[in-house]
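dude i think i finally got it to work??
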Amino acid sequence: MIDSFAKNLTGFLRRTDVLYWVLTLTASVYGCVLIASQQRSGEVNFLRTQILAIAIGYFAALIIANIDYRFIAKCWWVFAGIALALTVAVFFIGIQITGTDDVGWIRLPGGITFQPSELTKMCFIITFSVHLSALEEHERLRSFLGVLSLVIHAAIPVMLIHLQGDDGAALVFGCMFLIMSFAAGVQLRYFIAFIICAAAAVPFIWSRMMNSDQQNRLAVLFSNDDEMLQTYGWQQYQGKVSIASGGMVGKGLFSGPRVEREMVPYQENDFIFTVAGEELGFIGCAAILLLFFLLLFITMINAILATDPLGRNMCIGFFALLATQITINLGMVLGLLPVVGITLPFFSSGGSSAACLYIGVGLVESVHMHRAGKNERHMKIDIKKPKRKKQRKRRKIRSLGAYDKALGPQKRVF
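look at this
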């Protein structure tokens, strides 16, 4: 039994991308260390929830990685139904978590809360990848109706989650839609048209779709008013001070005075990067950026090496998710973008995000492990083609159901 387990484990390690597993786990452990440092003076045990979520997500990723991604794609309707059911359920049984301004969570038995939008992101990667692949297969990816169907597909989760008040997640879906469509080969003129329409809609979005809090969060980026900085810009201001106070090597892990006094509101979540900045300094922040660069690079390599559009689209989808959330989160922390409630992948506290991210890891690993022809043994066969002058076509005799005897016996080489 032990020999069988060792053999299976060896085979799995030979076929999988071990470095990708190591990088994701390293990022999660790094995030847990930062969360542990931040909560040392707090009452809520975020670390325990984070470790449990990572364990569940990692186990799910191992299972998904061993399943052929083509089989997963065939069950797209199951994932679409789950995502739609959970998203709609939020309108009826959704709750609001302390520190948020949207009703986007569901309370599960045992007092556990779950954010359906995180799972919906993973389901969207699967369903949208299947959609793109189907259009490409039928040569409709560049047609107007084909692109329109993609827009409708993406608009469903964007609008539903916007109506819940989680515009940060809706923005992530929009970026995933654009990046995946561009990488799949949708023509540039459609993106130009989208940019023109979006620019023309800015006044309507500002006056009709954005509430006063959202407007002030955007306006504070261009304001030096003390009252604005002490209200809507307070979290970002304190975050930048914490990062600047760390210098090159930081104050020392578990030794940051501002972290201990909780100067940055809700630092364990969206602003976890500031903990690294204060306690580990520039070196700690650079290590996070290096981890993300390697993760994005390997994800893109898997997309390039994928042997079919479906596998490529899935890898690009996870790449788009990571790149979007990393960019927006760091932009928030550095005061370059408004605060919209986007977590830093693998680092921010949040069980739903931590567990669901590993579903994406499992999809990328599945593409890596089940590429067509990967790890298959081929026998080299030398087949000599007959010259064209002597080549004859076989004629079927309908009455006898046999080949013409004049052709003689046919020799096959296997």
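The chain is about 65% helix and 5% strand.
im so relieved honestly
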